[in-house]
Design goal:
By secondary structure, the protein is mainly β. The chain has a domain at 38-84. 0% of the residues lie in helices and 33% in strands. It has strands at residues 38-45, 52-61, 74-84. Strands 1-2-3 form a three-stranded antiparallel β-sheet, with no helix packed on it. Strand 1 (38-45) and strand 2 form a beta hairpin. It starts with 37 loop residues before the first strand and ends with a strand.
Length: 87
Amino acid sequence: MGRGSGQQRLPGTFTKLGADAPEDAVWSARRDTDTGYGVAVFDLDPGSPGGKTSITISYYHALGADRSATSDYELFETVLLAKARRG
């Protein structure tokens, strides 16, 4: 039996366990509730030796694209991921 699942586990199958430390994670996501259409652009900066390498993710949404076709996109969110560069 899976931990706390109340169901029998079948051989050769994976059962995902529930969270062991649930929390409100309001910081982890921003939802685009205006439209279901958008595009993400990824920019890579390899950095310099001894510095940082980074990826900037910019998400653009097309307001109203779920009601009528549009080519007008506007920046909705930007996220920067960075870490120390090896070498």
